[in-house]
């Protein structure tokens, strides 16, 4: 059974804190993705990675960075959290290019106060 | 860039058919997808259609694609309360790795 896990379901942080969100997949997938989900805006891609140490900016990378040191793990970093980064964060993984299905984790609800 | 649009809400009665619509802007879409998100969960792939197809049927689900109008729809026959969820349309451009998602349609099934 395929699995994408995220380190926390709920997280509350203060403005200015450094925040790490971790994602792990057990399917040996090449690609990993970080999205944020906001009501009425759908899923917006923050960053994705197609190989270890490789990363590509998505549609809304500002205020975020990522790290992929091992194939199975993809981390999203908020260097200095702000209230407008309060959101649901979803991680996904997929294999190769083209049609392959994206598998999603359950999401992390981040609140920045 | 690519833009994928959906209406935000749809309500239907249990047992009726639901039709969720989606439009996209880039004609180089190769695959189009429907994902379902149940409360408190991530997204799960429901079905997909290749861009050279007009229709795909999978049990209670029917996907229709009008390439000329760049319009995709998902029909759910005999809608049940368990079908209440958010449905996302997404497309893949060329041989890209990333998808572009719509805003999601919240389907509410009334008893």
Order of helices and strands of chain A: EEEEEEEEEEE
Number of strands of chain B: 11
Tally of helical segments of chain B:
0
**Given the C-alpha coordinates, what overall shape of chain B results?**
globular
Give your account of this protein's structure.
The complex is a heterodimer of chains A (113) and B (111). Chain A is mainly beta and 113 residues long. Chain A is built from no helices and 11 strands. Chain A has strands at residues 4-6, 10-13, 19-25, 31-38, 42-49, 56-57, 65-70, 73-78, 87-94, 103-104, 108-112. In chain A, strands 2, 4, 5, 6, 9, 10 and 11 form a 7-stranded mixed β-sheet that branches. A 4-stranded antiparallel β-sheet of chain A has the order 1-3-8-7, with no helix packed on it. Chain A starts with a strand and ends with a strand. The relative contact order of chain B is 0.35. Chain B has strands spanning 4-6, 9-13, 18-24, 29-37, 43-50, 55-58, 61-66, 71-76, 85-93, 99-101, 105-110. In chain B, a hairpin with a 5-residue loop joins strand 4 and strand 5. With 111 residues, chain B is mostly beta strands. In chain B, the strands form 2 sheets. In chain B, strands 2, 4, 5, 9, 10 and 11 form a 6-stranded mixed β-sheet that branches. Classes of the chains: A mainly beta (113), B mainly beta (111).
């Amino acid at each position: 059974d395929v699995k994408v896990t995220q380190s926390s379901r709920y997280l509350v942080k203060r403005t200015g804190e450094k925040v790490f969100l971790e994602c792990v997949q057990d399917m040996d997938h090449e690609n990993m993705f970080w999205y944020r989900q906001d009501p009425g805006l759908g899923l917006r891609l923050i960053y994705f990675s197609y190989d270890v140490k490789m990363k590509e900016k998505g549609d809304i990378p500002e205020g975020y960075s990522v790290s992929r040191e091992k194939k199975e793990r993809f981390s999203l970093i908020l260097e200095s959290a702000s209230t407008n980064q309060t959101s649901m964060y979803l991680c996904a993984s997929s294999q190769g290019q083209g049609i392959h299905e994206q598998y999603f984790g359950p999401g992390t609800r981040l609140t920045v106060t | 860039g690519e833009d994928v649009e959906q209406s935000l809400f749809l309500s239907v009665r249990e047992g009726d058919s639901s039709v969720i619509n989606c439009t996209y802007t880039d004609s180089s879409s190769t695959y189009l997808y429907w994902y379902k998100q149940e409360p408190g969960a991530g997204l799960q792939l429901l079905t997909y259609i290749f861009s050279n197809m007009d229709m795909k049927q999978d049990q209670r689900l029917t996907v229709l694609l009008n390439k000329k109008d760049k319009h995709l729809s998902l029909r759910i026959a005999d809608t049940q309360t368990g079908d209440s969820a958010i449905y996302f349309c997404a497309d893949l451009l060329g041989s890209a790795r990333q998808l572009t998602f719509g805003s999601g349609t919240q389907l509410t099934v009334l008893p």
